[in-house]
Amino acid sequence: MSSQTKTPSQELAGSPTRSPWWIGAIAGLASAAAGLAIGELIAGIWTSLESPVVSVGNRVVDNVPRPLKTWAIETFGTNDKAVLLGMVALLLALGAALIGMLAVRRGLRFGLIGIGIFTAVGMLASLGRGTSGLLAPLPSLVGGLVAGAALALLMYRGNLDFAGEQAVAGSQTQPAQALPAQALPAQALPAQSMLLKAPNRRQFLGTAAGVTAGAVVIGGAARWLRNQGAAAAERLKIVLPRATQPLPDPPAAVELGVAGAAPFFTPTSEFYRIDTALTVPRVDLSTWTLEVMGEVSTPITLSYEQLLERPMIEADITIACVSNEVGGDLIGTARWLGCRLDDLLKEAGVSATADQIVGRSVDGFTAGFPTALLDGRDALVAIAMNGEPLPAKHGFPARLIVPGVYGYVSATKWLSQIELTTFEAFQGYWIPRGWSVDGPIKTQSRIDTPRNGSRVTAGSTVPIAGVAWAPIRGISKVEVRIDNGEWQEATLGEEYQATTWRQWKLDWKPSSGEHKIAVRATDGEGATQTDQLAPVAPDGATGWHTITVYAE
Ligand SMILES: Nc1nc2c(c(=O)[nH]1)N[C@H]1C(S)=C(S)[C@@H](COP(=O)(O)O)O[C@H]1N2
Ligand SMILES: [Mo]
Prior knowledge:
The chain is an alpha+beta fold. It has helices at residues 8-13, 21-45, 52-63, 66-76, 80-106, 108-126, 138-157, 160-173, 189-195, 201-228, 230-237, 304-309, 341-348, and strands at 289-294, 300-303, 313-320, 331-340, 356-361, 366-370, 380-385, 388-389, 399-401, 415-421, 444-449, 455-456, 462-469, 475-482, 487-489, 491-492, 502-508, 513-523, 545-551. It folds into 3 domains: 8-228, no CATH class; 252-433, Oxidoreductase, molybdopterin-binding domain (Sulfite Oxidase, Chain A, domain 2, Alpha-Beta Complex), CATH 3.90.420; 444-551, Immunoglobulin-like. The protein is globular and about 90 Å long. Mean pLDDT is 88; it is low at 1-17 and 163-196.
């Protein structure tokens, strides 16, 4: 018998859960979609706020144990963030479907309690991250209210709540079919008449379709706001100041011009990106400021315009990630434009007790390095890379760049504060997570061409080439070893700045067969790169990059 042919009383005479499970799942999913879309929209309008999904995802990122994080990065590569967001969304969808089913079977208030729990999780996850303070839970709160309202509306339109609750109540006392209507006492009649209101599937589905369509439109608008929003447009309007001390181009001979080897300057579009941010923070320039605070005599607050008015220098600096494996590509070189950090701190007057400079991001990330690193090197509050305002991914509107140390202790993107403190008083983001307090970049070299596992032509001239780096000590020598032969000195790109990597190459005429090629570099102080293998944690990988190629 199909449901259309049932009379209302026949509907009621069935089990207390007449509405099939999927009605509840639809109610839950549509309500959740509405709530989440509103959350995204609020976060899209007020760019300093995180949407509920992103807040929860960020909490997960901040708290997953390192082995799990390493596994995720190894398995999903740079898609790890998309996978995590997908998992949060999937869990949310499951939860939403269950909440909807509970509501339809047990009554609206059970559904509302479920939504309340999810809302509380979202609100809690948003707290204490970044600089949005007390407003941070707003997207989750409003999203939760909207989801609750949507669920109530759906159940009302489908006559679901009432029927469900009554049926359950009935089933707890006596089975509904044992209650002939005429046998009910008079005071039970109003309840009974509502009891007879059959679930209205058509109205329910229509409303669910409407709610879902609304959520899709609002979600789309939120996405558009995020992408096309204020920050991106503002960035395009920026006219970069000219450097007070412009830097001439590096000598042409820094570039050895071997096809397949990394160019001296890494194109911005290919520059590696590493950060904990699930979605790239979009900074509103009209409210953004950079504060220099903590153990200083004169705290400084700069607007973006004020930052741009400061004397600007250019510097060519190679930055690297501590998580770069031997032979990996989490490293790049750019021409950075910014104001000198040492000058800025001189103005602020660093107190003698401070030994740590902490960069804090608008999203709460922190990285700290010793005040002693300001030894005259070109540490910058950078506003541009390779001649363009910093792309959002790389820290717009400002970031720190400190030559010689890994990014996790220094290169804070979306910079909002520079705090002078002590190592005893404060640990940057990665330190309690098991990474080393100090992060000097280790001397390393990489073979870019030929590729590991590739085939080359026996008897022809095959250039072996790559890059070597040891900022800020510089590179003095690169050697290549083929099979178990002698170490042969490679040709180096022209000596330029010790803060950058150096290209190297060696021509080779392979005999046919399988060959192993290893590379090692010697830094500007005469220390040769160790062959001892070390993993990336806790302070950077070591070992010689070694590849196998086949000549035929
Ligand atoms: N706000 C913020 N800044 C950050 C990070 C981060 O997670 N959040 N990661 C750091 C790390 S570990 C590295 S290696 C560099 C990478 O900079 P890039 O993404 O511009 O290459 O940024 C640093 N700055
Ligand atoms: Mo990093």
